[in-house]
Amino acid sequence: MEDKKAVYAGSFDPITKGHIDIMKRSAQIFEKVIVGVLDNKNKKNWFSADERLEMIKILLKDLKNVEVQTFDGLLVTFMEKNNAKILIRGLRAVSDYEYELQMALTNSSLSGNKIETIFLTASRENLYLSSSIVKEIAINEGDIKEFVYENHINIIKERARLIKGGNFNEKNSNC
Ligand code: PNS
Fold first, then answer.
1. Helix 150-164 crosses helix 49-59 at what angle (to 10 degrees)?
2. Strands lying side by side in the sheet with 116-121
3. What is the pLDDT of residue 162?
4. Which of 7, 8, 11 to mutate to test ligand 1, by most ligand atoms within 8 A of the CB atom?
5. Less Cβ around it within 10 Å: N or C end of the chain?
């Protein structure tokens, strides 16, 4: 029964069209998908975990079997709490592979081989899309509309403006 439930975890700082594509496709495969947003106080994020959660929620209105939660600590603990054994990760270019393999093996080991990681390949149009690229473009005042949803363009642009102006401390973004 647990195998009908999956967790799709990430930083989502910010959520991109690539992430949503993986969420939609996962929702067609599993009965329930829990999106886990990492609340890592030590990592420099543009958006707090709650902001990221809200940004994702807005886009999930039509995906009734997908819910979103924040988590801190180990992903395996979050998955255990949610009684989930399948972890979904999106795989883009070859450059993702080594990190993803390390994470999949570590999570398997930490969970006593209970957790399986399933990779969904990124769609062609999202192959080279990442949150970092979106932030890079935004900070340089480029056009991000191809990469993120309409609802988020202004909040990302505004955050980029604050960061560029030195008026926002990325370290505090999770507080
Ligand atoms: O979108 P990201 O940043 O590539 O997602 C990485 C994430 C959040 C899935 C990963 O960093 C994570 O699971 N962190 C929680 C801490 C943990 O469990 N680490 C051990 C697994 S390597």
1. 160
2. 66-71, 32-38, 5-10, 86-91, 116-121
3. 96
4. 11
5. N
Cα 55 from Cα 140, distance rounded (Å): 22
Distance 10 CA to ligand 1 centre (A): 6
Radius of gyration of the chain (CA): 16
Which H/E stretch holds residue 38? strand 32-38
The model's pLDDT over 101-137, given as tens digits with 9 standing for 90+, comes to: 999 999 999 999 999 999 999 999 999 999 999 999 9
How many alpha carbons lie under 13 Å from residue 47 in its C-beta half-sphere?
25
Pocket around ligand 1 at a 6 A CB cut-off: 9-11, 38, 74-75, 103, 106-107
Residue 34's H or E segment, with its range, is strand 32-38
For position 2, what pLDDT does the model report?
Answer: 53
DSSP 87-110: EEEEE-SGGGHHHHHHHHHHHHHH
